[in-house]
Amino acid sequence: MIGLLAAVTEAWSEIRVNRTRVVLSLVGVFLAVFAMTTITAAGNMGRQMMAESSERAGGRPATLQAQVYSLTGSVDAQGEQRLLDAYRATAERHRIADWGLVDNSGRTLTVRFPGGAQAVPFTGVDPAYGSMHRVLVDDGRFFTAGDDEAFSPRLVVNRLFADQLGGFTDGVPLTVQLGGERPVVATVVGIADQPYSDPTMPSAYVLNSTVAQWDLGAAAGYASPPTMEMWVPDVAADALTSTIASELGASMPGYEAQVYRSDFGADLGVVDAVLAYGVRGVGVFALVLGGIGVLNVGIVTVRQRIREIGVRRSFGATGARVFFAVLLESVAATFVAGLLAVMLSIVLVSNVPLEALLPADVTLDDVPPFPVSAAVEGLVAATAIGALAGLVPATMAVRAKVIDAIRY
Amino acid sequence: MTSTIGLTRVSRSVALPDGGHLQILTGVDLRIAAGEHVAVVGRSGSGKSTLLNIIGLLDTPTSGEYLLDGEPVAGRSARRTARLRGRTFGFVFQQFNLLPGRTATENVASPLLYASGREFLARRRTARAMLERVGLGGRLDTMPEKLSGGEQQRVALARSLVRRPRVLLADEPTGALDVDTGSAVMDVLEELVRVDGTTLVTITHDLSVAARADRQFRLDHGVLTELTGDAVAAATAHRESL
Q: For position B1, what pLDDT does the model report?
């Protein structure tokens, strides 16, 4: 223990005495670690941005969508009920807790805005849709299970919809009359934009149960049964896809069942690959260049210090101790450079004004923290390059003959 | 007295690039007792430094036997030899060989980086005390380049003795100093080794420095012979005339 402490003391003393030379030799390593760490952290943010954006559209990994089509082209009420029963049975059979129906058939609500009635396209959803699609609610909230039993329909609308009603104030009920054969006053509980919808047109989310209870929604020119969405474990997604397709097909004669994965989890692997190989590849290249700089300076320094090494051998320094001390100088110096680079990177990435950098229509729900892995990688890489760059000078130091070193 | 250092028919030669051999030391016999002060004189290239390096375990003889405290030093691993060297010997070099960029205290403390736990932990206090002993208590934090030649050699003396070695090997300790400064440094050196009972081996080409030793040897073309009383007396007279 004392030996290690003494070696570290010796190495640190050497770094302190030659600080100018050491600092200059470490510029390359510092910049390489800083760049590698910062780009990795920024890449993680980019990945999170892409993930959140894709999850709003296609659901979180792994989201399966099941669609069943009538081979005759039309679905009567009895057929739709059988289909809903089949969906429910599927969820129960496979113990899928997070599932729901999504009605994207293009039906519309007749909304009586202050400026006049307007047909507003809506998406029929279940409460689970909010978490499955990471719906970003600007104001208010998304649907909860209790909304199924509310005395008036609940709506989550887009910003334009709310603005046409005079704006949304949290805590103050915003209501609107929905037309149809039986007009009903609905309550807006939140504001959330829908992916892939036209922001210049009002749109809304409506609970499927609400649509049925109050007979909301005019049919589109075509009719199709709702889609079933299931949030399942990533590892089970492939097996469930084929199994559920077979089961639905078997339970619905005269219908064709299609089950597919709708999330973009697999596609994000490309981003991961770019981060893993691209960023790290460039980082490793830069580190190698920085390491060569450290190596060069290390070799020159050992030649200049050959007499000092001889003197230390006369003090009783063993070959192993000389080797370790020279190696440790390199390792300690690059470790400190790496530490400073990582710290600077953390300060930079943690204080970056995301609002100014992200596109105007992009908002991060979960801003990723500075990735610990990037910090650890940066430190490990800096230390490793220091060890590699220190091997040659350390070997030269040990091989120097003591007598020649003293006479040098 | 117990023989601390015993060399028996020690020879040292080195291979030359043309395939031949250069004989540096030939059949050296030398016994040095504990606490004794021995001087070896000789011209440049006579093998003085090689002899000192062999005694100090920095070099190994080509043939012959070296006993340290009655134990052969040959056959030890490099690691054990290095540790034995650090524990047993202190070195004073002609060019001082102080570590650049370190204060006087840090220089004197540097051998204690290779010492045991207690010595290592107390290295700065020990170094300061040692510098006080050589009269440099007021220059503890001074860099070597700010010290005079005599002061630098006294720092080197303090450094060589900081681990309390049993044998001090001084290679031309006054070689880079003027006569007065050299004499003052030798006074300090002899006082320190006398108080501590340290064995002192001085290599010099200066007979007046050699005359201060208990015994004197001459090394000529690798052959070591003990100087007679007449030669010593002549050298002493020479010293006193200075």
A: 47
CA terminus-to-terminus distance, chain B: 33
Residue B56 has a pLDDT of 93
Helix (H, G, I), strand (E, B) or coil at A97: coil
Residue listed under structure tokens 């036209």 = A198
- The answer to whether the CB atoms of B114 and A319 lie below 8 A apart is no
Sign of CA dihedral A319, A321, A326, A330: positive
Q: Which ipTM value was assigned to this complex?
A: 0.85
Q: Is the pTM of this model over 0.80?
A: no
Q: Do residue B93 and residue A311 have CB atoms under 8 angstroms apart?
A: yes
The whole-angstrom separation of Cα A295 and Cα B68 is: 41
Considering only the beta carbons, identify the residue of A2, A6, A314 that sits closest to B58. A314
Task: Yes or no: say if B167 and B89 are a contact pair by the CB < 8 Å rule.
Answer: yes
Which A residues, 314 through 373, put their C-beta within 8 Å of a C-beta on chain B? Answer: 314-321
What share of chain B in percent tops pLDDT 90? 44
Is residue B167 very low, low, confident or very high in pLDDT (cuts 50, 70, 90)? very high
Interface of A with B in 129-158 (CB under 8 A): none
Q: Which long-range contacts (CB under 8 A, 24 or more apart) does A2-7 make?
A: A2/B116, A2/B117, A2/B120, A2/B121, A3/A321, A5/B120, A6/B113, A6/B114, A6/B120, A7/A321, A7/A324, A7/A325, A7/A328
**Residue B58: which of A13, A307, A403 has the nearest Cβ?**
A403
Return the structure tokens found at B172.
């031309």
Classified as helix, coil or strand, A120 is strand
Mutation target among B114, B152, B162, B167 for the A interface, most CBs of A within 10 A:
B114
CA B98 to chain A, closest CA, distance in angstroms equals 8
- Residue A398 has which token pair? 């040990």
Is residue A195 packed enough to be buried (19+ CB in 10 Å), middle (13-18) or exposed (0-12)? middle
Q: Are A137 and A189 in contact (CB under 8 A)?
A: no
Minimal C-alpha gap between B13 and chain A (Å): 14
Query: Alpha-carbon distance B19 to B174, whole Å?
Result: 37
Which DSSP state fits A143?
-
Angle (CA) A265-A270-A275 rounded to 5° is 115
- Six-digit token string for B136: 């440099």
Nearest residue to A241 (alpha-carbon basis) of A258, A227, A259, A255: A259
* Structure tokens that stand for B107 in this block: 């220089």
Q: Return the bridge partners of A260, or none.
A: A65
